[in-house]
Amino acid sequence: MKTIKTLFTLLLIIPFLSCKNDTPSNGKLNVVTTTSMITDLVKNIGGNHINLKGLMGSGVDPHLYKASEGDVTKLVNADIIFYNGLHLEGKLVEVFEKMGSQTKTPIALGEELDKNTLIGSDYFASNYDPHVWFNIDYFMQFAEKVTQVLIEKDPENEDHYTSNHTSYINKLVALQTKLEGIIETLPKEKRVLVTAHDAFNYFGKAYGFEVVGLQGLSTATEAGVQDVQKLSTFIIEKNIKAIFVESSVPKRTIEALKAAVKSKGHDVSIGGTLYSDALGNAGTIEGTYIGMFEYNVNTIVNALK
Ligand code: ZN
Questions:
Q1: Looking at the domain 187-304, which fold is it?
Q2: How far is CA 257 from CA 145, 224, 254, in A?
Q3: How far is the CA of 153 from the centre of ligand 1 (A)?
């Protein structure tokens, strides 16, 4: 009902704003982003030359997130909207589609990637696993697209965007090297990652981990008793030391899995909380994409060693 009401509000507001052009207001572009990973990326490139509003904070699950009326106002007033796409933001798709056809085209960064390289999935209407930010190369392509769009809409600040882009890419390259060094310390046979939902397939592909998510790709489907039983057997057979909670998914499913392993006379520890579909709190190390990635890798490697 809420979604219908939100959509209705959107349809009412749009005709009055459709004559709005793309020139920056108060000298700065109004940019709206969805997930905290994309917000952090756009902040790094736009710096203080843009007004940036991120819709989803720390701990927010993008699969389940619904636009509030306040969000709709932000979206309607935006000069640019960046989102992940590939049906990650499952409940926002309708809102974006409506906006795309009537006023502006929100930019789905994930849709810009080469589809032939993406991991397929039957869970999502996009047919692809949307958790692409766990491949740093893809995140660099996000950065490229964001820079290009900011320059297109605000050419006066081209030099700033270009230099911010270069310095951010350099940081991502350094991150990549650092992570590879940390992961090398974990023997290949210990690279099995069991988490609450399947957010880490791209991570697994990039760093040679077998990845199993208890809830499947989207948190919209709950894990069943059978899934828990099957996965507990897998953990025992593979002699896995630790499994992981995710900050944006309730802990109870992973706790149920730990209990199922225990009921079969074995022990598996909870290796820590990973940041999957949302960054940590703003102002903390895990509150940035780079800090989050390093934190996750350290947590995984330390617990599985
Ligand atoms: Zn997810």
A1: Rossmann fold (3.40.50)
A2: 40, 11, 5
A3: 31
* pLDDT, tens digit (0-9, with 9 covering 90-100), for 144-197: 999 999 999 999 999 999 999 999 999 999 999 999 999 999 999 999 999 988
* Pick from 205, 199, 293: nearest CA to 246: 199
The model's pTM: 0.89
| Cα of 218 from ligand 1 centre, angstroms | 5
Task: Return the DSSP state at 134.
Answer: G
Q: Residue 134 Cα, ligand 1 centroid: separation in angstroms?
A: 11
2-177: CATH, from 3.40.50.300, 3.40.50.1980, 3.40.50.920, 3.40.50.1820: 3.40.50.1980
Of the listed ranges 64-73, 117-126, 128-137, 196-205, the least confidently predicted one is 117-126
User: For residue 63, how far is its CA from the centre of ligand 1 (angstroms)?
Assistant: 6
